[in-house]
Design the sequence.
């Protein structure tokens, strides 16, 4: 093994390369194209450069509230308390360090959840020792008495309440946002909120007692800055309410925690968690207090989950957990990979649990405080995201805070705009979804679940969404057809000429559940048309090279039309001969960036 002292000598054997040299190589590849083609944009409009220098002056800042690694929580959302109890015991026995108790109607319930009653809670916790574990309550508007029931349960075990690791999860503003129920109003609800928390504090519990839940915005399709701004404004509203209820300025802030969604965008997720700590520290400083570490719970994101090819959810969750951990989350829970299909079974729960445990105990992700410190790209992204979120937060507060229905309505419109833009990018596959809009498998097996996901009950801008839904709806239509819709791939020329576009066309059509009928290619239009007739398909897609399109695409289209094709597609852009190709019978051009959802919707109607 090479000694560490030899590393500088080893590195010195390679000549130093500066950015100017790199740009020179990039310009050669671009061949006159603009460098800006390589610059990406987040949903907030933040530029993502292709290369960043090291942030030499940056130091570690994303310190979690607790040291020694995050707390791996198991999500408990079984509607049957006895079943939930069995799941909780199994999770704790096999490595989970605590439980996230999700109640029906909560922001993170997604159709399931524990009954929101004290009796159900006691049944769920029967035989469980709270002394060596953590609790994270995900409450609904109807479960506001559950924290008191949990407190009673803990006190009955003889555990010192000050040592109990409980995030009680009061979030009335979150419930008001997700349900759209403003009848009571925050001005009337705030004193009751503060009173409930004061009662728990008098019993000796240390909290945190309330949570500012950014997952609500993320699940509704909002941007990272919007998620942060919402969480900040919610936390400030709770801070004020607690002070009005008798807390001091300093003690009130310690009763507040945060929740954020962690998704498969690794760098944005890391930056988001780091930015939240920086933003809250700024608020503390502006309030005349020295910053203290805040408690952040991360949950892998609902909106990235897919029902189709759900195995890919395992990869998404792994990236999300890694990112939240690197960003400094204090606790993490993982949505099992079948969550979008229904209530996960023991196998899916085990994989969700082990996703955390492998990263925590084998990959040792938690052994470094703020491992992203000094990374040029992440430092810049953290800073830019913090600036954007701060600006949004200030605009929310200037309008009266997130507790104001008018402010929430205006904020909801901004979320809807971001979501609409993202859906357009997904529909055109500019934002690809692996296993859904890219590389689909229409013959994939469906994993088992304990119960199917019920029909969504939440409506409105803040209702949770999943990115994959617009393609999954197409797949559902195809699956319900009397016979599987098919498209004939009219491959022309050699394999080298048609293979790339035939592969593109197969992925495109099968993303909508339309089976692609392949072949080894044809050298004349008549044999292609005969094969199409024999296939039984009703639509066809011509696939070849641009050079062969110029020679034969029109003839192929005419032959296919005469053979009975109800719609003829061409894989690629029409270039200069679009008019002639359309006159020959080509109805649509399937290419990168086209409206895939619109094309597939039409194709299903014709092919079924």
Sequence:
């Amino acid at each position: 093994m090479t000694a560490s002292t030899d590393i500088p000598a080893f590195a010195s054997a390679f000549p130093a390369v500066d950015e100017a040299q790199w740009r020179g190589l990039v310009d050669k590849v671009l061949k006159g194209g603009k460098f800006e083609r390589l610059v990406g944009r987040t949903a907030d409009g933040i530029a993502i450069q292709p290369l960043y220098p090291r942030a030499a002056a940056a130091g570690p800042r994303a310190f979690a509230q607790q040291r020694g690694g995050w707390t791996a929580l198991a999500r408990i959302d079984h509607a049957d308390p006895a079943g939930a109890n069995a799941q909780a015991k199994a999770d704790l026995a096999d490595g989970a360090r605590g439980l996230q108790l999700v109640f029906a109607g909560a922001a993170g319930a997604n159709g399931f959840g524990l009954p929101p009653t004290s009796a159900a809670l006691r049944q769920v916790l029967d035989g469980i020792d709270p002394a060596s574990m953590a609790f994270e309550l995900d409450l609904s508007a109807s479960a506001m008495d559950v924290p008191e029931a949990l407190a009673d349960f803990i006190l009955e075990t003889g555990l010192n309440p000050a040592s109990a690791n409980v995030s009680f999860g009061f979030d009335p503003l979150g419930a008001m946002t997700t349900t759209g129920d403003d009848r009571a109003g925050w001005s009337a609800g705030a004193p009751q909120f503060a009173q409930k928390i004061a009662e728990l504090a008098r019993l000796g519990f240390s909290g945190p007692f309330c949570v500012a839940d950014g997952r609500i915005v993320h699940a509704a399709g909002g941007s990272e800055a919007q998620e942060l701004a919402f969480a900040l404004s919610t936390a400030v509203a709770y801070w004020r309410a607690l002070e009005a209820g008798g807390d001091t300025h300093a003690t009130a802030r310690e009763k507040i925690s945060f929740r954020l969604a962690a998704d498969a965008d690794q760098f944005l997720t890391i930056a988001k968690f780091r930015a939240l700590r920086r933003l809250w520290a700024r608020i503390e400083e502006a309030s005349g207090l020295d910053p203290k570490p805040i408690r952040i719970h991360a949950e892998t994101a609902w909106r990235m989950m897919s029902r189709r090819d759900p195995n890919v959810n395992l990869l998404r969750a792994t990236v999300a957990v890694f990112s939240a951990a690197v960003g400094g989350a204090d606790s993490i829970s993982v949505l099992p990979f079948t969550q979008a299909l229904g209530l996960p079974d023991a196998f899916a729960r085990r994989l969700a649990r082990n996703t955390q445990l492998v990263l925590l105990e084998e990959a040792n992700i938690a052994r470094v405080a703020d491992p992203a410190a000094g990374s040029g790209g992440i430092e810049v992204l953290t800073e830019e995201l913090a600036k954007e979120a701060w600006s949004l937060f200030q605009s929310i507060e200037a309008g009266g805070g997130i507790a104001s229905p008018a402010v929430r309505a205006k904020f909801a419109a901004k979320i809807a705009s971001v979501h609409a833009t993202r859906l357009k990018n997904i529909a055109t596959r500019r934002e690809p979804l692996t296993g859904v809009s890219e590389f689909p498998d229409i013959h994939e097996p469906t994993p088992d679940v304990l119960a199917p996901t019920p029909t969504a009950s939440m409506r409105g801008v803040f209702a949770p969404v999943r990115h994959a839904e617009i393609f999954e709806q197409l797949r559902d239509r195809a699956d319900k057809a009397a016979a599987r819709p098919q498209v004939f791939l009219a491959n022309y020329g050699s394999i080298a000429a048609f293979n790339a576009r035939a592969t593109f066309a197969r992925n495109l059509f099968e993303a909508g559940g339309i089976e692609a009928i392949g072949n080894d290619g044809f050298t004349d239009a008549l044999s292609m048309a005969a094969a199409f007739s024999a296939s039984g398909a009703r639509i066809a897609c011509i696939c070849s090279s641009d050079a062969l399109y110029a020679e034969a695409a029109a003839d192929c289209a005419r032959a296919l039309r005469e053979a009975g094709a109800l719609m003829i597609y061409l894989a690629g852009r029409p270039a200069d001969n679009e008019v002639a190709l359309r006159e020959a019978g080509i109805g649509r051009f399937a290419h990168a960036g086209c409206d895939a959802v619109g094309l597939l919707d039409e194709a299903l109607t014709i092919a079924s």
Observations:
- The longest strand covers residues 256-262.
- The chain has a mean pLDDT of 93.
- The first helix runs from residue 7 to 11.
- DSSP finds 21 helices and 17 strands in the chain.
